[in-house]
Write a structure and sequence with these properties.
The complex is a heterotetramer, with 2 copies of chain A, 1 copy of chain B and 1 copy of chain C. Chain B is an alpha/beta fold. Chain B is 24% helix and 26% strand. In chain B, helix 2 links the parallel strand 3 and strand 4 (79-83). By secondary structure, chain C is α+β, with helices and mostly antiparallel strands. In chain C, a hairpin with a 2-residue loop joins strand 12 (353-358) and strand 13. The chains are: A alpha+beta, B alpha/beta, C alpha+beta. The structure holds adenosine-5'-diphosphate (ADP) and magnesium ion. Adenosine-5'-diphosphate is lined by residues 130, 132, 165, 167-170, 422, 425-426, 429, 441-442, 445, 465, 489, 640 of chain C.
Chain lengths: 78, 225, 726, 78
């Protein structure tokens, strides 16, 4: 079994209302100097065959039309 | 008496709440950017999708300028009612215990549900009797009440659970069927169901009316002392 | 201006969907080759979606005059007078192709778009309805996915923005397998004095763009896409998907209404298909003026958009308004209060031209007329398929063998996808926000909305209908029936029609049989409108809904709005009180052709549908309306899909009470003739003179000696039909 | 400016219906041997002062009662 993390984020150029909302909120809380905020999804999972992760991402975990993904790291778990 | 209903960008049910309040008293809209509560006797944090519910429901709204005043008002014993998104905001603001998580169905659900009054010992349920049934609609995607087990025990021990979903009516997987809880001081109350959508016989059941009447009665009493 | 060489341009104009002869018309009109930006703008304005080139002539056959009409077709939404100084604006629009590509965002932005059309005329949106078509739910994984995501998207937008979704309809037919339909209707309310038109006016006035930032959303999207058949090689045509932001639109909506209440605007227009290009040129054309737009002033979401991209971007949640110079600051101040960005991007002049500047460069300089009026309108070449021609549609898969008992048949019908309870769908929509909803889904055949807290005000009712299979069987009668069924739904709550809107969802109009379906359907609608005296105040056309396997069923979707004098007496469909008499109102000669039963039995898609006696139907509607308004009835329900047996079952299930009836001789239990007849119940005395067929009461529905089924069993069948798939 | 990534996931022990839904859907698509699926949130942002990230996380980006977070990696961006 491998522990894997999939990071899913809005495709570049596609509207990201959540990212915008957070970016607008931060200064009001005194957090200045923050830019390019994007909000996406994190999926953590244990897989027997990490080789199938890309296929899983394309078919179920992400929406390839509007999202990009990155398979972050895999470490073996018992 | 005078209610103040807060309007955030993205509030949806603030006018509905104002109409409901006006059945028992006066009600004004309070703008999220203002710090003046206009001397109201009770504050309603209404339902809707403040700031689009982006990031996390209620997470951004809690920082609105008006919320600092609401917190101060609450700490001074003022009556605060949070409905749906308002409940979420009050939890995020730490004025109420617990948090609201996505419905186990992961879907938005609108449904007329039966609620059971657990405690009538509050400014919000005083006009009811424990065990009363109220028919009120729920409408949300993120209404599953959560708190750690020990905190849940404490809430029940302190009689802070004011409303539960009646058996078979829990629409979202809330722990222990909790539909609404108050703070320890009992002057701040949040619930997922929408009492403001159940006050007019003309559009449906009126299970929400007792909540507003309770508040009026409570405020009237304490005005006398 | 960068001019393309003829060779390049010809190559490019084809890619952009212009025919060679259309391109020649453009060059002749301009007496030069268009620049790249001009070509992009013209190709979109001359697309089917914007120019209605295959439907405009036909639409002239629809009656649009009526004594209640305040704004007819041509404005962003039609408006009818409801009294009390109030107007109701409404329109239905399709978002079929975007929803087929990305159902959640496609359906969500469809709702966002129709909402903007309504507040663009100054009305506050008070209700949404949705009309959905998918492939066979039980057979198609893809259709289940499309249903799930489209419904979620509609709910996401409507629920978040605080507009109740109060009704709709869904049908499942294999002809929609590759071309789902997602139509959304919106109603809005406005005091007469707040109504505003899109016509730009006043040379020297300022053009202000406000709302969301402009990005590369749907570049060459909706318009081009909506003019082409989806199918293989579709990838290339896919636009970059548009993401809906209901939070931004909520602020935009409040902002627009405040601007209008403070009387700060000369004119207002939403940005939809073809973005700035179509909004600006429509505004200019309607006002007979010219516009200069500096696209370098348009605030962008990402750097480096070219002028043509800025001019055709379909980024959502944007509006355009014309403002007198000395009011621009006030407008910007209101927008800031609503956290909405507002930017002056141009000026009105009397040149009659749309000029697009980019910094110093002139990127486009076109006569407004060539954009808006000069696109050629094509005549349809209709041909009725002959008896020897191959059937247009394969027969549906049979799920009944025939030989079932009437009881088994009724249970099968109630559990069938097209008749089963829609609760799993409409439970995902908020029907009560704004505190106007007097009748919710399943309370009655039409939604009822109060105009204000004061119960002495009249109320409005709305219904949406369109059974594509029946139109496929008999386009003229099928389309007319949809209009009659809407009016019948209104009659059930006591409302008289004020006006209607429609969305014509059809296949490729260049094919003779599709052209024939289109012409026949429009004739059917026009005739029904004249007979019922209901004007058409707006609508939308979606053509080329066609896959390699063939066209969709011809699907005219009708949305009708009516008024009822006393909302406290609005009708319900549930049987209520033991002992009440049940009557059937309306001449009723239903037929098996085109019925749900015919479908379940796998019968061919073929007419003719039963004749429609307009006078008789109108009289039945009037009788029911009068009875409901008098407060004499306890329930009223029109007899539609599944015939009289299903109608009776629906009344029983809704009330949780049984009924015992004897049908008039010769009335087939399951045959259909929608829009003509009703099942009503009430105290005996209230129904004297009517055809009383039985009594409310008991635990079962019993129809003569033919069937007897427990209400619990009927309820289980009806509620179990869709639930497993949602 | 530093590019930072904040990974937010549901606290252990709290029911995660999203993770469960994914876990249930995978086998139907022929993806077997997947376990412990959890769905959380990814927030990407450019910050001038990464030192303030923990505070941002506690005050706005996460709700400590129901979520754990991890500030994943920061690399400088111009
Ligand atoms: N897609 C939908 N969205 C919202 N409400 C719907 C939808 N489909 C059906 N409904 C509601 O469900 C009820 C039953 O639908 P339907 O059987 O189609 O009514 P009818 O037969 O009168 O057209 C109606 O109140 C209708 O408005
Ligand atoms: Mg009907």
């Amino acid at each position: 079994m491998m522990r894997a993390r999939v990071l899913v984020k809005p495709k570049a150029g596609i509207l990201d209302p959540q990212g915008q909302a957070v970016e607008r909120a931060l200064p009001a809380l005194g957090f200045t100097g923050v830019r390019n905020v994007h909000v996406g999804r994190l999926i953590e999972l244990d897989v027997e065959d990490p080789g199938r992760l890309p296929e899983m991402c394309q078919r179920l975990l992400t929406n390839p039309l509007i999202e990009d993904y990155e398979i972050l790291e895999t470490e073996s778990v018992r | 008496m005078k209610f103040g209903v807060i309007r955030f960008p993205g509030s949806c049910d603030e006018v509905d709440a104002q109409l409901a309040c006006q059945r028992v008293g006066e009600a004004v809209i309070l703008w999220h950017g203002d710090r003046d509560l206009q001397g109201v006797d009770a504050v309603v944090v209404p339902g809707g999708f403040s700031y689009g519910d982006y990031l996390r429901v209620g997470a951004i709204a809690r920082f609105a300028p008006v919320m600092e005043e609401v917190a101060r008002f609450a700490r001074a014993g003022g009556i605060v009612l949070g409905i749906c998104n308002g409940f979420q905001v009050l939890c995020e603001a730490g004025l109420l215990p617990g948090a609201l998580l996505p419905n186990t169905s992961l879907k938005f659900i609108f449904r007329q549900v039966q609620l059971e009054v657990v405690s009538a010992a509050s400014p919000f349920t005083g006009a009811c009797a424990a065990g009363d049934r109220l028919s009120i609609p729920v409408k949300h995607t993120t209404g599953r009440f959560y708190a750690p087990a020990d905190q849940l025990d404490a809430l029940e021990a302190n009689d802070q659970v004011l409303l539960r979903y009646a058996a078979g009516h829990n629409p979202n997987g809330s722990l222990r069927d909790i539909a609404g809880v108050c703070n320890e001081a009992r002057n701040v109350f949040g619930l997922m169901p929408h009492p403001e959508h159940a006050v007019d016989p003309f559009t449906g059941p009126t299970g929400g009316l007792p909540i507003f009447e309770s508040i009026r009665a409570h405020v009237a009493e304490h005005a006398l002392v | 201006m960068a001019h393309a060489t003829p060779a390049q341009a010809t190559a490019r104009h084809r890619e952009l969907g212009l025919t060679d002869s259309e391109y020649r018309l453009i060059v002749d009109g301009l007496r030069r080759e268009p620049s790249d930006t001009e070509l992009a703008m013209l190709s979109l304005m001359w697309s089917e979606h914007c120019a209605y080139k295959h439907s405009k002539k036909l639409l002239r056959r629809l009656p649009t005059e009526g004594r209640h009409v305040l704004m007819g077709p041509g404005e962003n939404a039609g408006v009818v007078d409801v009294g009390g100084g109030l107007g109701v604006a409404f329109k239905v629009e399709s978002h079929n192709h975007p929803s087929a590509v990305e159902p959640f965002q496609g359906a969500a932005t469809g709702v966002g778009g129709i909402l903007r059309d309504v507040f663009a005329v100054g009305a506050r949106p008070i209700a949404v309805l949705d009309s959905l078509r998918f492939g066979e739910i039980a057979e198609s994984e893809r259709s289940r996915y499309l249903l799930d995501r489209a419904v979620a998207g509609i709910g996401h937008y409507g629920n978040s923005i605080g507009v109740p979704t109060v009704g709709g309809e869904i049908y499942f037919e294999s002809s929609y397998e590759q071309n789902c339909l997602v139509n959304a209707m919106c109603l809005g309310l406005a005091p007469h004095e707040r109504l505003i038109r899109a016509a730009a006016a006043g040379p020297g006035n300022v053009l202000v763009l406000f709302g969301a930032l402009t990005g590369r959303d749907g570049i060459g999207g909706a318009s081009v896409l909506a003019s082409a058949e989806l199918g293989d090689g579709d990838e290339a045509k896919r636009p970059s998907v548009q993401i809906g932001d209901p939070f931004a639109e909520k602020k935009l909506l409040e902002c627009c209404l405040e601007l209008l209440d403070s009387d700060l605007l000369v004119s207002l227009q939403d940005l939809g298909a073809a973005g700035l290009t179509s909004s600006a040129s429509e505004m200019a054309a309607k006002g007979g003026v010219g516009l200069d737009i500096d696209c370098s002033r348009v605030p962008l979401r990402e750097a480096g958009l070219e002028p043509f991209e800025i001019m055709v971007s379909e980024s959502q949640e944007r509006m355009l308004c014309v403002v007198e110079p000395d009011r621009v600051d006030a407008v910007i101040a209101v927008c800031e209060r609503w956290e909405t960005l507002a930017t002056p991007i141009g000026t009105v002049n009397d040149s009659g031209r749309l000029r697009v500047l980019s910094g110093g460069e002139v990127a486009a300089d076109l006569p407004v007329g060539i954009l808006v009026d000069d696109c050629p309108l094509y005549d349809l070449q209709p041909a009725e398929p002959g008896p020897t021609d191959a059937a247009l549609y394969p027969p549906p898969t049979a799920v009944l063998r025939g030989g079932e008992s009437p009881a088994e048949t009724l249970v099968a019908l109630l559990g069938s996808a097209n008749i089963a309870s829609r609760r799993p769908v409409f439970e995902q929509y908020d029907p009560v926000v704004q505190s106007r909803t007097v009748r919710r889904p399943d309370d009655a055949d039409a939604a009822v909305l109060s105009l204000g807290p004061d119960p002495t005000l009249p109320a409005i009712a709305v219904s949406i209908d369109g059974n594509g299979r029946r139109v496929a069987c008999d386009p003229r009668r099928g389309a007319a029936e949809a209009v009659y069924e809407c009016a019948a739904n209104l009659a059930c709550v006591g409302a008289a029609p004020l006006g209607l809107t429609n969305c014509l969802n059809f296949g490729n109009p260049e094919k003779p049989h599709v052209a024939w379906q289109l012409v026949e359907a429009v004739e059917g609608i026009a005739t029904a409108c004249r007979e019922l005296d209901v004007p058409v105040v707006g609508g939308n056309v979606s053509l080329y809904n066609e896959a390699p396997t063939g066209p969709i069923f011809p699907t005219p979707v009708i949305g009708m709005v009516g008024r009822l004098p006393d909302p406290t007496r609005a009708g319900r469909l549930a049987f209520e009180t033991d002992g009440d008499a049940i009557a059937i109102i309306g001449g009723f000669a239903p037929a098996r052709a085109g019925s749900e039963l015919a479908k379940l039995c796998g019968e061919a898609i073929a007419g003719p549908l039963p004749a429609l006696d307009g006078a008789a139907a109108r009289e039945a509607h009037a009788t029911v309306r009068a009875l409901v308004n008098s407060g004499a009835l306890r329930s009223a329900h029109d007899i539609a899909e599944g015939g009289v047996a299903v109608a009776l079952a629906e009344c029983c299930i809704a009330g949780g009470v049984g009924a015992t009836v004897e049908l008039p001789a010769g009335v087939d239990l399951f045959a259909e003739a929608p829009g003509r007849a009703f099942i009503v119940s009430g105290p005996e005395a209230a129904l004297t003179g009517q055809t009383v067929i039985g009594r409310v009461g008991g635990e079962a529905l019993a129809i003569g000696s033919e069937l007897r089924v427990a209400i619990a069993e009927l309820e289980a069948a009806r509620s179990g039909g869709l639930a497993p798939f949602v």
